[in-house]
Prior knowledge:
Layout: H1 6-15, E1 23-29, H2 37-48, E2 54-60, H3 65-70, E3 78-82, E4 89-94, H4 100-114, E5 133-139, H5 146-159, E6 163-169, H6 174-179, E7 187-190, E8 194-197, H7 202-211
Parallel strand pairs: 1-2, 4-6, 5-6
Antiparallel strand pairs: 1-3, 3-4, 5-7, 7-8
Amino acid sequence: MTLFSEDVIRQTREVLKGLRDPVTLTAFSQKTDCDPCAAADAFAEELTAIDDRLLLEKRDFLQEKELAEKVGIHHVPALVLHRPGDGRPAVRYYGVPGGHEFGALLRVLVLFSSGEGMGKIDLSSLEGLKKDINLKVFVLTTCPSCPVMAHLGAALAYHSPRITTEIIEANTFVDLAERFTVGTVPKIVINDAEELVGILPPEELVRRILAA
């Protein structure tokens, strides 16, 4: 059984026309004790089959612990997007980015491939960022407002080599949602400390990052 209908594939191809350079996606999963891993693997395979510029690497979380630790993977399933130029694992999707998150993922892929799609975000102030920043963006695939913050977090990670962004499906990773007291989404946690709830203007999120 396939996950993508013919209509979804057609619409996805339209969005992916904006791709220019190849984008590498690394999918981490495991064969045991991971109920959503099979669906995540199928999602990654079907998505990357739609366009040759999407390159898939499949990794076993249990057998490749050292690599997982190197790229910052702590839960599975996870999908890693690498920052162009330096290959840094800039964006990590935890869970299956379906529902409302699927459109945001496609926009992020186009951004990573072409540099297009940042919108009117002034990120010049991030050039002076002095320390590494980790953004955890908690979302639900059923949340219509979550893609705004997921895309913004990914765009910041694309722009700045100091920022990494983790987009976490809260219902899939209940332990993380409980650890960071996620009651409302979208919710952003900066460096596992400062918590921001709801949709923020880009300039406000940048200001919070610089003050962290």
